[in-house]
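hey so i finaly got around to running the thing on Response regulator from Dyella halodurans. pasting the sequence first so u can double check i didnt mess up the copy paste, my clipboard has been acting weird all day
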Amino acid sequence: MNKPRILVVEDEADIRRFLRLALEREDMTVFEVGDALHARIDAASRQPDLIVLDLGLPDDDGKAVIRDVRGWSTAPIIVLSARESETEKVAALESGADDYLVKPFGVPELVARVRAQLRRANLAGARGQASALIRFGDIVVNLATHEVWRSGEVVHLTPIEFRLLAALVRGQGKVLTHRQLLIEVWGPGHALRSHYVRVYMANLRQKLEEQPARPRHLVTELQVGYRLAGIVETP
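ok and heres what it spat out for the 3d tokens, dont ask me to read them lol
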């Protein structure tokens, strides 16, 4: 099996070295660059399996790099940044990032995020359009027939509840912001009504989670949005 190829984009040399050593210890091949220009060049020429990107680059904002890369690549992008405001997180995710990790961070969390995004990308690539069946925990979702089962029993979802669940399923573990979910599920005219997502997410958790107050799969991310955790292959 080929080693995952990771591109690290970080302007501080000490942090770049720290990231490279941490990821190489996990049997990954790491390339590193220190500015937006070389980030774009290496993303195109090396075609990494995943990009770890700092937003505060010396020659351009990292969000612009994300938007450019997203024009031709679906490789997961994990943002590392000292910018911890909700506005910055939302802007990065809506530019096309898949996850956001605030500095300082621990190696175990970084590695876990990287591996989760690599699994998501591999699963999405292997599945392609071949199967409409998705499983997480004891839940099975049929995207084609709009059917949902929990421990073999049919779960009745309203049309909006199913559309919200389907949006999270299609995200394959990516963090989706409130705005992204509102536009996909309710339409552009509802992009500012974030309470819609909270209400319907609570309904989904009541129907699908073993402990709705401590969800394992329908996960809140940093008051920015939601993601679906634990997707696995369905035979």
